[in-house]
UniProtKB/TrEMBL annotation:
Keywords: Coiled coil, Intermediate filament. This is AINX protein. One of its GO terms (molecular function) is structural constituent of postsynaptic intermediate filament cytoskeleton. Belongs to the intermediate filament family. It comes from the Eukaryota. The gene is Ina.
Length: 165
């Protein structure tokens, strides 16, 4: 019985040692896998932190660009409103200038009409003067008629209406 017990104890010890060796081997592999997983988790954590920092940086840049865009839009809308005001002012000035030009044109037309009427009146008076001169020259047949062209005190030369009228 002792030999059998010793063999059983030896077999149990061999089985125990083999089992422990396999378990130690498995534990070593598991520990290595855990270390690798921890390293990978650490790298992932560092990469995550880097990505978060990059994301925060990009978020700040995005907000800055949005703010600049709003400021540009506000400035451009203010400039557009200013230009619209300027356009309105210029249109008013143009309308006023056109009205003033029309008024000046009417005044010029009135003055031109007055000038034409005066030219017609002057022509009528010239004809009257020529008729009077002819009557004066015919009425004094005994006195030699003075030559109107050679008379230095009277140098009237009748003309027709000017081309400007």
């Amino acid at each position: 019985y002792e030999a059998l017990a010793a063999r059983n104890v030896q077999a149990a010890e061999d089985w125990y040692r083999a089992r422990c060796a396999r378990l130690h081997e498995r534990a070593a592999r598991s520990q290595e896998a855990v270390r690798a997983s921890r390293r990978e988790a650490g790298e992932c954590r560092r990469e995550l932190q880097a990505r978060l920092a990059e994301m925060e940086s990009l978020r700040g840049a995005h907000q800055s660009l949005e703010r600049q865009l709003r400021e540009l839009e506000e400035r451009h809308s203010a400039e557009a409103a200013g230009l619209q005001d300027t356009i309105g002012q210029l249109e008013d000035d143009l309308r006023n200038t056109k009205n003033e030009m029309a008024r000046h044109l009417r005044e010029y037309q009135d003055l031109l009409n007055v000038k034409m009427a005066l030219d017609i009146e002057i022509a009528a008076y010239r004809k009257l003067l020529e008729g009077e001169e002819t009557l004066f020259n015919m009425g004094s047949t005994s006195i030699p008629a003075p030559n109107p062209v050679s008379n230095p005190t009277y140098s009237f030369q009748p003309r027709g209406l000017s081309s400007s009228t």
